[in-house]
Amino acid sequence: MDFLRRSPGCFHAVRNLAEMLEAAGFQRLQETDLWSLQPGGNYYVTRNGSSLIAFRLPEDRPHRLRLTAAHTDSPTFKLKPGPGLTDGGLTRLNVEQYGGAIRQSWLDRPLSVAGRVLVEKEGDLRQVLVAPDRDLLLIPSLAIHFTSPDQDAPSVQSNLLPVLTTEGGPAVLDELLRVCGVEPETVAGMDLYLTNREEPRLWGLKNEFLSAPKLDDLACCYGTMEGFLESEADRDALIYCAFDNEEVGSTSRQGAASTFLRDTLERLFQSFDLTSDERHAMLARSVLVSADNAHAFHPGYPAVADPVNRPKLNGGLVLKHQAAQKYTTDGVSSALCRMLCKAHDIKLQEYTNHSDQRGGSTLGNLSNTQVSLRAMDIGLPQLAMHSAYETMGAGDPASLAAFSKAFFSDRLPEVQE
Ligand code: CO
Question: Which of 240, 294, 219 is nearest to 4 (CA)?
Answer without folding.
Answer: 219
